[in-house]
Amino acid sequence: NNAGYWDKGEAVEKTVVFEEVPVTIEYHIVNATTHEVVETVDGGTFSVGTTLSLPDRTRLERIGCTLSTKYYTDATCTAEVTTQQAGVTHYYIPYTVDSDALLNTYHIVFSTESDPVWHNVMVNNNKRIVFYNSTNSELPTSAYGPTELVNAETQWAFIGDPYSVKIINRANPSKAATVANGNNGTKVYLQDYDADHSRWCMRVGTTAGSLQLKVQGWGNDDYSAYWNAAGGSGSIQLYSKNEKYYSGSDNNIYVAYPPT
Hints:
By secondary structure, the chain is mainly β. Helix content is 3%, strand content 34%. The protein is built from 1 helix and 19 strands.
């Protein structure tokens, strides 16, 4: 044309490149059988294609359980992936429970409210027994002999599994061991069965056959809130520290079957 430009009347195509925006993801720990989500963990912020990796896996392990190394985009754990997917913010990690290991190593049989299996619970290297005080609903500890072990107040059942367990007493099975908050020194009481903070998880103890009971799903991932025997003579209370891995020997719990 007269302006010195070449114009064929053709449209000019442009290629627009959209950069994938990193997203914040969550990992959900889920029972492989019931598909119940028992704990949710902040996974961080990542871009599509990043390899999935559960942070602090050791902290999330429980006695007698195997936490899978696989990741799924659905709670029923059928759609396996290995990397961050576009538009997906929730990933599921299943766990399985080994009932034989729980029985042989920790003397625990998980049961139901309608058909409970009763156990004795001891602290401080098996020297003191945990019982239920019906007067104030506290869980005192006491030195014991054979006669104390057969009392209803000294027998406990575990409902659920090591990732999410309710603990009930034979003398008052309609209530469960509960705490009002996760603060250091907070006492454990028997309260309404469905009360907040009445679920616990079971971590490995520091001596053979022992375990530790931690408040399940407390809001701060870095917070520890374990059953503690108050120096060996008082009621069960929480020992809490702002640490992920605290597991002092004073928090060890031992379980045994009541004598018949």
